[in-house]
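WARN retry 2 of 3 for item q-0093 after timeout on previous attempt; input resubmitted unchanged.
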Amino acid sequence: MGESSTNRKDSFLVCGLGSLGQYCVSVLKEFAVTVNAIEASQAPIWEIPDLTDLVDCLLIGDCRQPKLLEQAGIRDCRAILLVTSDERVNIAAAFAARSLNPNIRLVVRSAQENLNELLGHQLGNFIAFEATQLPAPSFALAALDSETQGLFTLEKQRLRITTTHIQPDHHWCDLRLLYELNTPNRRVLRHFRATVLPPANSFYQWDPDTRVQAGDTITYIEATEAIATTPVLSHRRRGALWQELSPALVWQSLRQTLHQFWREGTQTQRVALLSSFVMLSLFVSGAALYKLQYSELTLQEALNVSLVLVIGGFDNLFGDLKLPFAIPWWLHLFSVGMTVAGTIFIGILYATLTERVLASRFQFLKRRPPIPKADHVVLVGLGRVGQRIATLLQDLKQPLVGVHAIALDPGVLPQIPLVTGNFRDTLMRVNLATAKSMVIVTDDEVANLEIALMAQAANPNCNLVVRVFDPAFTEHVAQLLPAARVMGAYALSAAAFAGAAFGENILSLFRLNDRTTLVTEYQIEPTDTLNGCLLAEIAYGYGVVPILHQKGDHEPARLMPSDDIRLRVGDRLVVLATLSGLQRVERGISKAPRWQVQVEKAVSEEAVFAGAGAIARISGCSIGTARELMSHLPAVTPTLLHKHQAQRLVRELNKLQVLASLLRAS
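OK item q-0093 returned
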């Protein structure tokens, strides 16, 4: 989070200059900060040109060594990025860094989710990412080639970023102004005409009073659906619920349950149920009869005799030539019947268990679904990234087929068809000619290129998404496959690592107009640049989009919060931001407001009162100042406003029967 310049340390340390580390250095230098680095090898391969010019101090050695960390300036660093390819090295270096600098921000590359959570509690000021899995949603959405640009979950609510091309028959066309599209569940992000190139950096380069027309392109974020959860009842509520339900647990309810089981169960299940009732009756009856016949027996002894007979132990009691004790003929006959019935019951029990075991085995060995015939996604490479992409595509109800070099465990993605073997052979079996998209995410970027070229030859209309690592190689692939979506995994992830280094919590990321957009969480602290600001000032001044606000830990979070909320210490704020937006927040560089509102007159005393409230609420001035302005009309609002903010104030005043207009400040 941005802090005052007197307290801020603009020095960062990157450990591990592989592909990810090099991208992290490049992104950090965009913030104009000091970046030192430690690399284990003497002659690393630089994938980013002139990387040595970006690093202020490069040391060679083991980043786990305290002396080397001190030499790299660890005590004066604001954050350390531990991004080597060895998780053990990263974690060991994190402990060493924390011992040398108790306040340093630890940003670690690690895929051990449970361990990361434990380390977060143990070390504090710690965050971990898995670099290969962060971009998985971007790959999945690129495969759809649809209007969806981003998809993530926030407060158990799924949010979708959508780009819509307005057709003449669209229900917004010629009927809605852009500001009218903003609702409690939706926010407009970008708008441009068909003949105008969209701005690259800002979310707010559009006029709220513009009417939607055919040919327009509108990008917006919308809360689509809640993630279903199972409610947890408190102890008191569970007790009350039990009291409400217990009277219903009578014979009638039990009889209905048994009737339903008897009607819907298999033949074996019915026989097992009936046999269980018979055996329970015989067991109880046998214990009662022996207790009544032989009063000297205790209840435990009578139950034991009955149990022995039921499980086939007749010979244990009566197996001798002479009976061991006097027994009436009818009780002796009943004992024989119990043993025979018990033997039959055990046979039925074995049959039921065998059926269950075989059914479970057949279910475990159940064949995967057939390969889709057309309009499906072919996913090549089912490593960790590929499996994550497959899960996301399944959640989006997309038909797909997986392709992998070796067979997977039957429990891995059992609901998708899978083709294994040599890629040249397998591509002939996945109906590639009729596929909608192909996502190629193996760990070998040369193999990815080969597969992409083969796919293009087989299906020129197929939407290709190719994973690469080397930026130079990326350019070559883009030239060979101009229509393909060539995406660098580490280039996408580096933005999240760099943002986290400044203390922000990066919740998700996605690609929007070929730029990485981060879903970033702020916890407001006393020295933050955002403390005391209206959300309108944050949104339009820094060029970020507030999508969630929570006042304190115990208040409910609000999606798409009002621009009129003023942030206080302890508040939580989640925004959409590009790297340039994060830079502006970090440095406290806000775009200067240049607009005012000319207030002409109010039609009534009620309008004067309500207008003063609207001015104070939207502009952020005191209520006293607003009332003073409304008592001396015509007048101009004393507070400078951003254009979107001023336009909203004009609309609100006009609704309250206060005549007002927009005025550009001189």
